[in-house]
Specification:
heterodimer, A: mainly alpha, 3 domains, 16 helices, about 0% strand, globular, B: about 290 residues, MetI-like fold, two-stranded antiparallel sheet, 12 helices, about 5% strand
Chain lengths: ~300, ~290
């Protein structure tokens, strides 16, 4: 979708006659020309939809700034006595904050593994025809379709028998089940956009394949690698069923720490809400950088 | 683009193959093993053939869960796809506000699934949640832990909240790729807003919409965490979808044989439907050239 904005369009007749900053003039003229033909949306509808999206998140934020006593005794739209106590509880108690550390460790491991193995495979799919390539490509996608519930028990037994139960690497490998296919699909989508002449020129210039791949090709698809990494990170971060099944103490993810609190009696809603808000933060921080590619990522690189 | 035939490309795919074989094929074979064997403990297994499959096919439990699952997937697709398209049509086309909309809309997609459950569990509670409290104040008898209808509504609204943005983002990407000339031509022909949508925007979005429907179908069919956190599958079995039922059977009751047979049939259903979608999708790809 980024190419539409870069595509040169016919400049408006009036633009050339105005002296001054021509490029800026032309840009606004183009924008005006474009928006003249495209049906415009209604800000009211968007406002309503965004309100619907943000209200539950706001409510969580609201609760996280209240004490448990205030939550249960009074009902108010804003915290009457805002407090950061809940966040302090989480950030000072190892059984809470280690959950975040564990999650981050296996998510990063998973992202690195997924991208490393997906890069050469995506290159092969985007450049060559080989025996069984189409079937292999679909088979990879089927792993994205596999319900984690089907794999929960076998994973538990597999990793127990090889002594990896309750380690970070176990969760990282298990999440490869859906992240590797995702990374291959996204990267293949980006690599298709790089002209093959570049490969050929590099080979003629005497580059070996590994050197060409690292020095020339990877910088060209840097944005694709970034997006693929982002999606691996996100899908590993949001998954709970497998990470909970494969861990007990040492590698327990934050998501599982939260469910334990839900089932306990005498639930502290404020701390729960604060923990929830803290899990949203990583996604919210990086999303701005990938905003233009987010649809491409969710579409498995097919837009 | 013509690709060169090169069978040595297999070596580039090898790492993926080894990794996915380890994390997909071995576990899947375990499931197949369990589905045809029985045990009295002590790791002694004996062959039972297709007994478990027969038992599962005759049990009401699986058919009920499958029925609930199909109804759920159908409802959320029927809501999310039109709503997503509608939202995409109303999004700002460019500039700062387009970015703001993209970022805010993506937010629910990036929240861990159990936190999505937690958010709605809190939001819908009648004592401390904004939604539940408001409904109660308006005189609606709403209680998602006891009432069948309220539980379903909550789970569906939650899913709409969680995933409509995905459809909207994809549809938006499809809309953005339509060249201005199409709209100019429509303007000259004085086409109505509906005609522009029906004959320009919808056909151009078809490819991405297929992906959106495929993804939403797959993911809604595997839904586990969100309803589990909010309703725990209740009241009764009202919101026990396939994955919830399977986890109950396999990890809760440790009925390995039936659970394994269940798993295989479950996976096959997803596979068959997804293959149909995939074929349609690649055909669309070919028709439009490479997207």
């Amino acid at each position: 979708m980024s190419d539409t904005t870069m595509k040169p369009t016919v400049s408006a007749p009036g633009a050339a006659s105005i002296p001054g900053d021509v490029t800026a003039e032309r840009a606004t003229a183009n924008a005006r020309l474009k928006s003249r033909f495209r049906p415009t949306g209604s800000a009211f509808v968007m406002g309503l939809y965004l309100l619907f999206l943000l209200l539950p998140i706001y409510w969580l934020l609201n609760m996280s700034l209240k004490t448990n006593q205030e939550i249960l005794s009074t009902f108010s739209l804003i915290p009457l006595r805002p407090t950061l106590e809940n966040y302090l509880t989480i950030l000072t108690d190892p059984s809470w904050y280690m959950g975040y550390v564990n999650s981050l460790i296996y998510v990063v491991m998973n992202t690195v593994i997924s991208i490393m193995v997906a890069l050469p495979a995506a290159y092969a799919f985007s450049r060559y025809q080989f025996m069984g390539d189409k079937h292999l490509f679909f088979w990879l996608l089927t792993n994205r379709m596999a319900p984690p519930a089907v794999f929960a028990l076998p994973f538990f037994q597999l990793y127990s028998s090889v002594g990896l139960f309750d380690t970070h690497i176990a969760v990282a490998l298990a999440h490869c089940l859906f992240n590797v296919p995702l990374a291959v699909w996204i990267l293949e989508g980006f690599m298709r956009g790089v002209p093959r002449e570049i490969d050929e020129t590099a080979y003629i210039d005497g580059y070996s394949f590994p050197r060409f791949f690292v020095k020339i090709f990877m910088p060209l698809i840097a944005s694709g690698i970034g997006v693929a990494a982002f999606f691996c990170f996100m899908f590993s971060w949001v998954e709970l069923l497998l990470s909970r099944t494969l861990t007990s103490v040492d590698a327990k993810p934050i998501a599982a720490t939260m469910t334990r609190t839900v089932s306990a009696s005498g639930l502290d809603w404020g701390v729960l809400a604060a923990a929830g808000i803290l899990t949203i933060v990583p996604g919210a921080l990086v999303i701005w950088f990938v905003r233009n590619y987010i649809a491409k990522g969710f579409a498995l690189g097919r837009v | 683009m013509e690709k060169t035939v090169n069978h040595k490309a297999w070596f580039l795919v090898l790492p993926v193959l080894v990794l996915v074989a380890f994390s997909a094929v071995i576990p899947l074979m375990t499931v197949v093993n369990y589905s045809v064997q029985d045990t009295f403990g002590n790791n002694v297994f004996f062959w039972t053939g297709l007994e478990w499959f027969e038992q599962m096919l005759k049990s009401d439990r699986m058919w009920n869960a499958l029925g609930r699952q199909l109804v759920f997937s159908a409802i959320i697709l029927a809501i999310e796809v039109p709503l997503g398209i509608f939202v995409a049509l109303n999004m700002p086309k460019r500039g700062f506000w387009a970015s703001v909309c993209l970022v805010l809309m993506s937010l629910p997609l990036l929240i861990p699934w159990n936190v999505v459950g937690t958010i709605w569990q809190i939001f819908a509670r009648v004592d401390i949640g904004l939604l539940g409290y408001t409904l109660r104040a308006l005189g609606v008898n709403y209680n998602y832990t006891q009432d069948f209808f309220a539980a379903w509504t909550t789970v569906i609204v939650m899913d709409v909240w969680h995933w409509t943005s995905l459809v909207a983002l994809l549809a938006y990407a499809g809309l953005q790729s339509i060249p201005d000339a199409y709209y100019q031509a429509a303007k000259i022909d004085q086409a109505s807003r509906w005609a522009v949508f029906r004959y320009i925007e919808l056909p151009k979005m078809a490819g991405v919409l297929m992906i959106a429907i495929l993804l939403r179908f797959m993911d809604s069919f595997m839904i586990y965490t969100e309803p589990f956190v909010v309703t725990g599958g209740g009241p009764g079995n009202a919101t026990t979808f396939l994955s919830i039922d399977l986890v109950k059977m396999a990890l809760g009751q440790f009925d390995l044989g039936p659970a394994a047979a269940f798993s295989i049939m479950y996976f096959l259903v997803i596979l068959v439907i997804s293959y149909v979608f995939y074929t349609v999708m690649t055909n669309l790809d070919k028709r439009d050239g490479v997207a």
